[in-house]
Amino acid sequence: MELKSLKVDIKDHIAHVILNRPEALNSMNIDFWREFHGVIEEIDAQADARVIVLSSTGKHFCAGMDLAVFSNPKALPNKGDPARMAENLRRLVLDLQEVFNVLERARMPVLSAIHGGCIGGAVDMICATDSRYCTEDAFFTIKETQLGMTADLGTLQRFPKLVPEGIARELAYTGRKFSAQEAKEMGFVNRVFENQEAMLEGVMEIAQQIAEQSPMAVAGCKEMINFSRDHSVEDSLKYMATWQSGMFRPNDMMKSFAASAQKTTADFDPILPKKPLFSDL
Fold first, then answer.
1. CA 31 to chain centre
2. How confident is residue 67, by pLDDT bands cut at 50, 70 and 90?
3. 5, 29 contact by CB (below 8 A)
4. Which phi and psi angles does 230 have, rounded to 5°?
């Protein structure tokens, strides 16, 4: 697949997905919406990578939605029966949400590395990643409010689970910018780096540490943390017990013990690739 908005590099079990429209501040144009979902799904399906790092090029991480997307009458018809136009818009929003939902569904963790501006739809995107890191010059804004609309691709659902709710409400209601330091203080980002080079080096080190662990164990951690976020403690503990009864096997544990004793890195089997239904029949 020839990519117009992204670059992808997979090495040492780390998939590096790079937003690559620096001349347009990496705004999310039609090419992005067509490509991003498929790229993440393909990485997940192939299962060669054990962690995904999401970064970008140019001055800013991402300026959010390219408004030209909504000026296309094929994407958003503005004539005809109101009920049918409304139903069409609902499906469009659900389809756009799905582009970022895939980050949560991927079996491997996704780490986002943010520099410069992270605006509007870009905040929706990084809220769906497992961990966020940024440079000192990074800033964030839930810009949709200042554009006269409500953020609709995940920020309002995920952001209040990542930071105190009162802060999430303030930032959503006002649409004001908040800095890297403020993002760190509220717990939205894990770490702030001096510059982009230092950030990518640091995030890749974290990615490598993840990639060295049992991919089954890491996938289980992600599954449980996501489930627990949206369910009660009791339900989550029951799901954990069910998961262990089906997924836990001693092979990876024995490899971990042996590697620790020998002071080496364990060589774990990959999780199995995903295949289309009945593809082998």
1. 18
2. confident
3. yes
4. -105, 5
Helix-then-strand count for the chain, H and E = 11, 9
Q: Are strands 6-11 and 14-19 parallel, antiparallel or unpaired?
A: antiparallel
Q: Which of 14-23, 119-128, 141-150, 271-280 has the lowest mean pLDDT?
A: 271-280
The closest alpha carbon to 253, from 212, 210, 214, belongs to 214
The angle at the Cα of 274, spanning 268 to 276, to the nearest 5 degrees, equals 160
In the numeric block, the tokens 């990615």 are attached to: 207
Q: Would you give the distance in Å from CA 155 to the centre of its chain?
A: 12
Nearest CA among 133, 107, 101, 105 for reference residue 218: 107
Q: How many residues does the chain have?
A: 281
pLDDT tens figures, 2-47: 999 999 999 999 999 999 999 999 999 999 999 999 999 999 999 9
* 6-211: CATH, from 3.90.226.10, 3.40.50.1100, 3.40.800.10, 3.40.50.970: 3.90.226.10
